[in-house]
Amino acid sequence: MTKWLDDVRTNSSKNVTVILIGNKKDLEDKRQVSYEEGEAFAKENGLMFLETSAKTAYNVVESFNLSAQCILNNIERTGIDPTISSNINLNKGMEGVNQGGVNGPSGKNACC
Fold first, then answer.
1. 58: which DSSP letter?
2. What is the CATH T-level fold of the domain 12-78, as seen in this structure?
3. Residue of 9, 19, 26, 32 with fewest CB within 10 Å of its CB?
């Protein structure tokens, strides 16, 4: 398993929803990871897997819908009350990341 996935699983609820998303599906000729490799990695690590393209909007809405549906299923299955706050610090490890809005100084999206 990779360090980032270990960190997610160590520092989050056991019911966390993790979806591996391969982006830039529209650039098939520049692909560095095959669909099969992404799917195999996801399967080996218990993740869901989708490929998307922000340019063509391929699977973008579907990825959000899948995530929301999984979260809802977890809430219903576990009885977690999402209105009760927890001790999870959403900004942990985000020191130095632009938190002033969507766009950073370069005008580009600061989060992605």
1. B
2. Rossmann fold (3.40.50)
3. 32
